[in-house]
Predict the 3D structure of the following.
Amino acid sequence: MSHQPYETWILESNTLPVEDRRVLETHLATCEHCRALHHKWRVVQQELRMRTMVSPAPGFVQRWQSGLAARRAKEARRQAWKAFLGFMGSAIILLFVLAAYVLSYSSPADWLAAFIRHIAYAMDLTDTLFSLALIWLRSTPPALNLALWIYASVTLGMLSLAWVFALWRTSIIGVFTNEPR
């Protein structure tokens, strides 16, 4: 026999609507299982009411909160190490797979030729970019070039200030100047 919703109603008997309470009382008169649960629940409620509330020791909240902060910091460090080791493990596995692939399909002579081709490509790219920059500088008005240099300088200065501020806020500068953190 299914004892639902009666078991739930027994545990919530203080908040039941009148109609559900009547249905529960009728069921309790006929069902031994639910009557035993109802009796046990009443005994537990009486035991809880008879017990006195124990107050925590002085300073409990402060000790618990400081311990919580320490546990959270420890958990954050543990998760950071897990992520770091996971990424490093993945990178090492990928490196081994790529090394095995390269070793199985090419020779050291091929590696040297590819390296020289990449150096030549980088030099050609640098020369092309330099030529484009010269053409752009010659074809634009000097005032625009000056404005772009000022903009680039101010942007670089603001980024430098933001970096110094971030270092100061994280107290890394205090390490170098022997100031307390």
Observations:
- The CA atoms of residues 158 and 164 lie 10 Å apart.
- The two ends are 68 Å apart (CA to CA).
- DSSP finds seven helices and no strands in the chain.
